[in-house]
Amino acid sequence: MNVLERAIIYATEKHQGVYRKGRKVPYILHPLEVAQIISTMTDDIEIMTAGILHDVVEDTDGTIEEIEEKFGVRVAQLVATETENKYSDRPKEETWQQRKEESLVVLRNTNDIGVKMLWLGDKLANIRSLATGYTEKGEEVWQLFHMHDPEKHLWYYKSVAEALELDLNRTGAYKEFIQHINFIWPGTFTTDKERYKKFKEYSIDGCKIIGKGAKGTVYRYNDEIILKVYNEKNTFKDIERETYLARSAFVAGIPTAISFGIVTVGERYASVFELLDSSSISNLIAKDQSRVKYYAKIMADLGREFHSTPAGKIDLPDYKDEMFNWIDTGIIHEDVEIAEKIRKLITDLPASETMIHGDFHTGNIMMQGNDPFIIDMDTLARSHPIAELAGVYMFYRAFGDMDPSFIENFMGFTYATSKEYYDEFMKQYLGTEDEARIKEVTDKAALLCYTRLMRRVYKQGLELSEENAKARDHYLSRIRELIKTVDTLEF
Question: Quick check: is 43 catalytic?
Fold first, then answer.
């Protein structure tokens, strides 16, 4: 017998007497179905074997060590990626979210196509069964699971689909997976035909970096084309939304470059732009720091244009929700009283129907000749401009508080130049040389900025590293100083 046949016999013995949830069907049919799905994507017998064995450790007395001994190291490693921590000392209903989040970390961080095929095989088999149950029982089907909230199941299946998308979107198994998600949760994925095409592949070997943003890096591909290469966590749907926002902003009168295509660069997506002889303002300042005032005025004019442009019917989030999140995941851990004061300041800001960029810095502003264009549009929101100015303060002042080299690495020019740029930007944006007025608005922006940075401190959890604890103490000190004088965020 080959390894797959031996695995079928072993798994049948381990799952003997167990039935599928809500059905009088022997459980062994599920891993057999998973292996069959995997066989439509690959003839790698070890991945199919892992499909047969994927639930042995999680649901029987079998162990990873036993699987490794009987079926080899690679099969055991694949099975381990599909084996959740059961947290047997706590109710399954209580640990559902935690277990799913931990398992998704494994999937998102792997480059092993075998792991991705194994996951797709398992999740497709599961959602096939769920779709049948949903057809027969309707909303009552959710009572069969430890998690009764259908939106949580949607979150999980959607997260899996997005993690598998780039590598497996052209397989029949992936297409069927998406169809079942759309059947149970209509409209979740609305561009099926686009999702399944083979993307043109580009290489950035030897290409020059001309800009950086929170979501990706911009490269000069040739004399006519630039590529924005997105970070690993950005999905096709994220990039589609950015294209929609860029087009909407362009129609509203905002100067922005619009992608004419989505391609792949290795394991990541990229947008293609036709911009002749263009470079980011960051790069231009780095080449000639004597032109700080010139570029600060361009950015200030662009900022005012943004902040006076009605959002109209563009589907944009209210940035207040983001600012409240800064509080609830940061400062509230240190000073509840100050947290509530800042919350009230944000709440008291009048509702805004105008746009902010959300990631407004010189790395995201390209110059083509004398014309500026913005290329990073996925963070567009509705908000009072003070939220934007808080980001500007962060990029050009606060990021250098603890380590001036951080700004030098991010922007490409010195911290001293960065501070000079910020000061000139504020003069041009506010249209005044009045230092008291500039300080007044800067203090408001700084208060929001340090509130935002407190969230960064706690991003990895409540147990802080020595570096994060030092940053926490500095940011908290600045917040306590600023809250004494800031009684409104309006200006």
Answer: no
